[in-house]
Amino acid sequence: MSKNREQWSSKFGFIMSSAGAAIGLGAIWKFPYVTGMSGGGAFLLMFIAFTILIGLPMLISEFIIGRGAQKEAVTAYKKLAPNSLWTITGPLGVIGCFLLLSFYAVVGGWVLIYSLMAVGGKVIQPNANYPELFGSVTATPTVTLLGLAAFLLINIIVISFGIKNGIEKASKYMMPLLFIFFIVLVLRSVTLDGAMEGISYFLNPDFSKITGESVLYALGQSFFALAVGFSCMVTYSSYLEKKVSIPSSAGSVVLMNIFVSILAGLAIFPVVFAFGFEPAEGPGLLFMVLPAVFSQIPLGEFFLAIFLILFLFATLTSSFSLLEIIVSAFTESGKHSRKKASWISGIVVFFAGIPAVLSFSLLKDFQIFGKTVFDATDFLVSNILLPLGCLLIALFISNKMNKQLVEQEFTLSNTSSPILFSTWKFLMKWVVPITIVVVFLGTVGII
């Protein structure tokens, strides 16, 4: 590793930062409502199985590519497969992260706005209409644009401080706080009258509820929830010391992701059932259902504020990885300073996010293929670019990357048996690519 290249200060810092990148909207927002729509406990079991069989091997692969090349995403593929078509994988990841951040930061802005409103006691009100409140917030351009700008400003400041003093330091505080807040929330949730019905729904599998669609949801969630596919983890692992075991680090990130997903379910489902709401409320669960639920609990505003703040932490730590892959692509050559690249990238993302922000107000009638700009960007990123990125990475590590280097990176500082390496190779060669193709065909409606 070059002497002037930054590194994580510790394995703990790397794991916290990687877990922070993985744990975001997917784990806390999307997972509960998709579980609610897909039958509860049976979906949870499928998600855990697919995360271990699909998500974990993909995460290990990105870690191997990044540390093996010791370069950020764009340069990594150029170094490992020079003058080949595989080099498009890095730029594809940067473009994907840029587009993803342009609408992810919109939701981040909403969470920031709601967090400030909850702390100020402005969300839970007597006889409040929460869908109407959410609609009025998202339909006010000045408010949502300020939310987007503030959310990106936090990202710019953290990324400009670098790996150790920026991302790692923020993640080392935010992630433990997220777990503490979540446990407080879960303890409150499971002690409510009628909470057991929600716990039973979430943890007791009812396999009669499983459909082809719910299987596809679980497959998709397994790798969408781990921040794999856009080479964010390639960039993160390029700052990793050789003495750190890749499989055990990836395993720690996956376990934390599963744990947070379970905590999210235990925080939400008992409360939803205790107050007679439907578990399959969809994406509005966070902004419309939960305020209504917390309004009926003593100290509800306080617990809602805790939930929104921890959700803000998770959203921020995920967005750090998206901005970092963009910034590192410009700073790798040494021609641009990290601070300058962070500000320019953040400002460009802000302007790119304006159409998505205005999709709920001034541009709500403007459509691309029958979708608003926000929904169209989400569809392009989640259903096309992300599966494509996952497939390219899976094929690259199985068929193109130097096999000796792959084995060396996998086994370095690792006491596991050769069977583990052989199992990972088999999964990446056959199971993961086939699964990704199935998910892709399912999400675009071909199967």
From TrEMBL:
Subcellular location: Membrane
Coiled-coil residue spans: none
Transmembrane segments: 12-31, 43-65, 85-113, 133-161, 173-195, 215-240, 252-277, 297-330, 342-363, 379-397, 426-446
Keyword Transport: yes
Keywords: Membrane, Symport, Transmembrane, Transmembrane helix, Transport
Keyword Zinc included in the entry's annotation: no
UniProt topology in membrane: Multi-pass membrane protein
InterPro entries according to UniProt: Na/ntran_symport, SNS_sf, YocR/YhdH-like
CDD domains per the UniProt record, alphabetical: SLC6sbd_Tyt1-Like
Family (UniProt): Belongs to the sodium:neurotransmitter symporter (SNF) (TC 2.A.22) family.
Official protein name in the record: Transporter
Classification of source organism: Bacteria, Bacillati, Bacillota, Bacilli, Bacillales
